[in-house]
Amino acid sequence: MKLRDAADVRTAPIAALGLIGGYVVARESGIRPLGGVVLGAAGLYAGRSWVAKAGGAGAAGLAAVYLGGFGASHVLAKKIGAWPAVLTVAAASAAASWVVADRPR
Fold it and tell me: What is the pLDDT of residues 2-26, one digit of tens each?
């Protein structure tokens, strides 16, 4: 399988789907590390494009938002519920990805 050129990949949907998909897989399978594999795979795929499009500093910032969102979703879930928390952090990560890496220049 050949991956698309990193500069041609839209990362906002990948970031959102990584967070949402990781949650769904963990919840439905009952195997939390399997959800982590989904989260990690999406993060790595988006990350290669973040580096290509936004450079090292931009990629590091977006990775922090992505992984920070994963951590924050656990805290936020106690206040607003699991699904609203996951959707909130997925939207934040997608928005950051669009602004930093995907937005037309």
Answer: 889 999 999 999 999 999 999 999 9
pLDDT at 104: 92
Distance CA 95, CA 67 (A): 14
Nearest to 17 by CA among 36, 32, 38: 38
> CB burial class (10 A; 0-12, 13-18, 19+) of residue 59?
buried
The residue written with tokens 């995907």 in the block is 102
Global pTM value: 0.94
